[in-house]
Specification:
Number of strands: 6
Radius of gyration: 22 Å
Length: 217
């Protein structure tokens, strides 16, 4: 087994990458196989396919204000005092299964709560950009007929860019025209049981009209 320098440093990282290359043990590269890959939006980062189908675009924005550890910086980084103005915040949820509590609304409406919400919106915008740029030839936006829009799409105003009925061109903010086609998928075979809600199983789409959050990465 190779011995690397102690501690997390650049030299140890480079030696580790070199060892993965020489031993062919890097499991991250995608094999050239003709198969459908089902994964989360986060897991698709850095990858590319000829055709990409995006789902769960109408889900809610998760801000993780409760029961999550968050780091905050209140000033510029000081190399002589690296922990200065650095804070770690953790707000536990003490109300069990209750979802609406007046004091919780006050916390979420506070300056700190709004900052967490704004950061979550920006993160969802970045994730939406990552997902929509994974397709090389064709991008499919799979949306529910009963809920075609939602909070996640709303972070970037995506629904405003989608053409109306009969239109075959989508115009981007910079004036670029992109070919567009609207269609409805009707199941033609019995719906198969899938262990994952909203995913495709046995070649037939599984309708899922319930309100749900994005799946975790």
């Amino acid at each position: 087994m190779p011995i690397y320098p102690r501690g997390g440093n650049a030299l140890g990282f480079l030696l580790w990458l070199k060892d993965l290359t020489e031993t062919a043990t890097d499991t991250m590269p995608q094999p050239a196989i003709n198969a459908v890959q089902v994964m989360t939006h986060h897991a698709a980062k850095g990858l590319e396919w000829p055709v990409v189908v995006l789902m769960d675009l109408a889900c809610d924005v998760k801000d993780s204000i409760w029961d999550a550890v968050r780091a905050e910086s209140l000033g510029a980084f000081n190399v002589n005092d690296p922990l200065k103005d650095r804070w770690v915040r953790y707000w536990p949820w003490p109300y069990g299964a209750q979802s609406k509590v007046p004091v919780a609304d006050d916390v979420e409406a506070s300056a700190a709560g709004q900052a967490v919400r704004a950061a979550a919106i920006e993160e969802h915008k970045r994730l939406l950009y990552v997902s929509m740029t994974r397709a090389r030839d064709l991008l499919v936006l799979a949306r529910q007929a009963k809920k075609p829009d939602g909070e996640w799409m709303g972070t970037a105003g995506l629904a405003d860019y989608l053409p109306g009925d009969g239109e075959q061109t989508m115009v981007l903010s910079d004036g670029t025209a992109v070919p567009f086609k609207d269609g409805t998928l009707h199941p033609r075979a019995p719906i198969s049981t899938s262990p994952h809600p909203g995913l495709i199983s046995g070649g037939s789409p599984r309708p899922n009209n319930e309100r749900r959050n994005c799946r975790s990465p």
